[in-house]
Write a structure and sequence with these properties.
mainly beta; four-stranded antiparallel beta sheet
């Protein structure tokens, strides 16, 4: 094979010679934004990348030719921003007549503690009654107190550990995502 044909066919995994794509496959917070960047090497600035986007469960690709450009010492950067990601997006770049593989931007719900209670049982010698804290911001307790944590998380996350006073502690969840 000629050197140029060899480079085009055998060195693109998944980028095409002279072009780099970011972020490739990525998970982002639900309803957030994401920016697709295509960096074209200075030696290939004669060519312009074309972005193709498609939403999950849609059949047709949308051709995006109008991307924000920025010249740098490395080459030209093409940017396209997607706002309020609420569904999976697929995209690919066509450059010099060759397409990249299909990349995915997947919005996900990150685990969040939606309710928290810390039951504090002070040491016996204090004669203090147990009390409940409902925030990590107000965690005040005496040395030797026994703490019971309970709360709810917004999604099933399986197994989780908590780092507390230099040790990991396993947290058990029920079927309602309560711990």
């Amino acid at each position: 094979l000629k050197e140029n044909v060899y480079k085009i066919l055998l060195t693109r995994s998944p980028e095409i010679l002279g072009m780099f794509v970011f972020p490739k496959n990525i998970k982002v917070p639900l309803n957030s934004s994401c920016e697709i960047k295509v960096i074209v090497n200075k030696n290939y600035q004669l060519y312009r990348p074309v972005l193709f986007i498609k939403r999950h469960k849609e059949n047709s690709w949308i051709k995006i030719t109008d991307m924000f450009t920025e010249d740098t010492s490395v080459g030209r950067i093409y940017k396209y921003r997607i706002e309020n990601l609420s569904t999976k997006i697929y995209y690919k770049i066509k450059f010099r007549g060759v397409s990249t593989k299909i990349f995915t931007i997947k919005p996900i719900v990150f685990p969040t503690i939606t309710q928290l209670k810390i039951e504090v049982h002070p040491p016996e010698y204090t004669k203090m009654k147990p009390y409940i804290l409902e925030s990590f911001n107000e965690t005040k307790y005496l040395y030797g107190s026994r703490l019971n944590f309970s709360g709810t998380i917004n999604k099933n996350i399986g197994k989780i550990k908590m780092w507390f006073n230099g040790k990991y502690y396993g947290i058990n969840f029920n079927k309602k995502n309560e711990f």
